[in-house]
Amino acid sequence: MAALKPGVISGKDYQTLLQACKDGKYALPAVNITSTNTLNAVLEAAAKNQSDVIIQLSNGGAQFFAGKGLEDGDKAKVLGAVSAAQHVHLMAKHYGVCVVLHTDHANKKLIPWVEGMLDYGEQFYKEKGVPLFTSHMVDLSEEELDFNISECRRLLERMAKIDMSIEIELGVTGGEEDGVGSDEIDNDKLYTQPEDVLKAYDVLKEVGHASIAASFGNVHGVYKPGNVKLRPEILKNSQELVQQTHGTKANPLDLVFHGGSGSEKDKIAESLNYGVFKMNIDTDTQFAFAEGVGTYVLENERAFKHQIDPDNGTPYKKQYDPRVWLREGEKSMISRLDEAFTDLRAAGKSLTLPESQRKVA
Ligand SMILES: [Zn+2]
Questions:
Q1: What is the mean pLDDT of each run of 10 residues along the chain (361 residues)?
Q2: Ligand 1 center–CA 221 separation, angstroms
Q3: Which pTM does this prediction carry?
Q4: Which position among 52, 104, 163, 196 bears the catalytic label?
Q5: The domain 7-284+346-357: what is its CATH number?
Q6: Would you call 104 a catalytic residue per the annotation?
Q7: Distance (Å, rounded) from C-alpha 37 to C-alpha 329?
Q8: Which one, of 97, 131, 85, 105, lies nearest residue 28 by Cα?
């Protein structure tokens, strides 16, 4: 397979990349960003690990990117996402890796957010011939299955025209309320039904490209071990049903692993055998950033209280300069991402590398 050009990728190149992931049984970390600090840290980590990467924004992350002071929050969610995407389009190619640009969970209430971004995306496509985002997620897993599928189809019709993909969710990714500390965790909704996946696959493949976040006991956030039972074989069942029904090759579905933070490493590894090409990571990188900043602040406490030390006259400008302590956050986040690239077996496999130079195992 020929090398891809570094920068934001979409359409056919995106599908080439996720096929390479599935064939090579590795996945890309999809990292939620909220600022240029976190965004640049992801680009730096990807370059350092010679891996392609997925950068994504939640609606709240996008709003934060635009600025919490902007009065119209709905507008800020659209503008912040667009602003971050433009930054990535400008910068990504200089880091030498492929970047997939994506937005995270949009439930029914947030469909106008997706449509707002599509307005900008269509304009961008008109001007540049490529989409602003590679894909958007539309998560209607709380709604009836038929509505979930038909609404995603409606939005995908619009996205496909500008070479975009959609990510949908079937089954519910658990969270603080849905699972942990409760016996309810083992209910059907936390484990996606293969029949539902087949139905969605059949409807959406007529329109364009869709990836699927399927639930196999995964939850958002980090919880004490033992509370959540990951069952990656659920993914295998869905793959096999689609494969048998349509006579496709193995792992026809492009699957996404939500709630990757804090997951057992062997279950992560197992899911890579069943067509998972993307694993979301947010909680762990949030903590890593905070830990880096926190350690620095605690070690330099007086510099965060006084510009000049009142006792001995020491000037603290070199310590309180935001570039210094924000960089500590970036560095710590990059170390956590080193671990993710390794866990997902993505390091050294960027499709920007000539095939002979890509890591194999
Ligand atoms: Zn999620």
A1: 92 97 97 98 98 98 98 97 98 98 96 98 98 97 95 98 97 56 53 93 98 87 66 92 97 91 82 95 96 98 98 97 98 98 97 94 77
A2: 9
A3: 0.94
A4: 104
A5: 3.20.20.70
A6: yes
A7: 8
A8: 97
